Amino acid sequence: MRPRTLKVVDLVTLLVLSGFILLVVATRHRLPGWHGPLLRYGVLVLLQVGVIVGRGRCLPPVFTAFFPLIPILAIFDTLSFIPQLHPEDKDLPLLAMDRALLGVDLSLWLEAYTRPWLTELMQVSYLVYYVVPFLVLGALFRRRPAETGQPGSDFDLCVTAMALSHYLAFVWYLTVPALGPRFALASRYHIELTGLWLAAPIHDALNFLEGIKRDAFPSDHTSVALVSLYYAVRFTPRLVPFIAPGVFLMILSTMYLRYHYLVDVLAGALLAACCILLSRLLCRLPLPGATPSA
User: Fold this and answer.
1) What pLDDT, in 10s, does the model give residues 100-142?
2) Backbone angles phi, psi at 220, to 5 degrees
3) Residues near 138 by Cβ (< 8 Å), separated by ≥ 6?
4) Is the bond leading into 145 cis (omega within 30 degrees of zero)?
5) Tens digits of per-residue pLDDT, 189-199?
6) Is 131 exposed, middle or buried (0-12, 13-18, 19+ CB in 10 A)?
7) Whole-angstrom Cα distance, residue 241 to residue 233?
């Protein structure tokens, strides 16, 4: 292995995978299908090691650059085991914090402003979470130095912050499992969120792809979107006018569509700030053969 191929995001990924492997092994008596997640984490470790070895050698730069997104998706898909570890959801304390801040249940209060056109706009805006990170990372990847073909420090900072956002959110999901208002308050809604043409298909597709997970607190949608916006402002300002409105609409949509409480969104904003700072600190570490990021 050539030390210069090692990146901070590689170490973060390996550390998180090791943590999940230890978690599954330690709690296997409570996880009937524990072999499946354990096998998946093991395969991801091998793939990550392969990326480290193959970076700058036999693997295409675009693959090694965007590989950190693969473990994120694969680990998230395994989090359906959270109820087996923590059977009691924490929606009631989150609701109590919202009421303390606002004096009302936000999603119930928003019912008065529900309109089909607005639901349509919010549901489409919710998809910004799945688009903006790729736009920002793609723009940063295109700025890679021609002599190496590998992405520069700006890309490394951004992808590390995004990985940290997801992984720290996963830890919180394990610690504070919550379904969100659309489930916790389902019996109290009087108005169904009905859009025009796209809202229902998008809603159904997301439910199918993501499943039902205890992933309300914090709002990783908010965190990753704000991380993306921050690095766009810093490194690719020409993108900002195109993505900023979508980011803010997406954050509003998480509450309008009953996915998140206000405290989830506030925690997501705090998480974004922490990940940006932590990424900056970690990417300055003197890894063997690596040049610290700015």
Assistant:
1) 999 999 999 999 999 999 999 999 999 999 999 999 999 999 9
2) -70, -25
3) none
4) no
5) 999 999 999 99
6) middle
7) 10
Do 92 and 180 form a contact (C-beta atoms < 8 A)? no
pLDDT value, residue 3: 36
In the Cβ-directed half-sphere of 157, how many Cα atoms lie within 13 Å? 23
Contact 167, 156 (CB under 8 A): no
CA-closest candidate to residue 258, choices 187, 154, 173: 187
List the chain residues with pLDDT less than 50.
Answer: 1-3, 289-294
Q: Considering only CA atoms, which of 246, 274, 239, 281 is closest in space to residue 143?
A: 239
pTM of structure: 0.92
Closest of 286, 281, 219 to residue 253, by C-alpha: 219
3-state DSSP helix/strand/coil percent for the chain, to nearest 5?
Answer: 70, 0, 30
pLDDT, position 263: 98
- 149 residue type, one letter: G
Instruction: Tell me the chain's radius of gyration from C-alpha atoms.
Output: 20
| CA-wise closest residue to 79 among 202, 209, 211, 258 | 211
Q: Which of 23, 38, 168, 42 is nearest to 82 (CA)?
A: 23
CA distance 211 to 198: 19
Instruction: Pull the structure tokens for residue 246.
Output: 């979508």
Domain boundaries along the sequence of the chain: 88-282
Alpha carbon distance 69, 141 (integer Å): 14
How far apart, in whole angstroms, are the C-alpha atoms of residue 144 and residue 46? 26
Q: Helix (H, G, I), strand (E, B), or coil: what is residue 194?
A: coil
Per-residue confidence (pLDDT) for residue 7, from 0 to 100:
93
Computed from CA positions of residues 60, 55, 15, 287, in that sequence, does the dihedral angle turn out positive or negative?
negative
- Dihedral sign, CA of 28, 34, 37, 41? positive
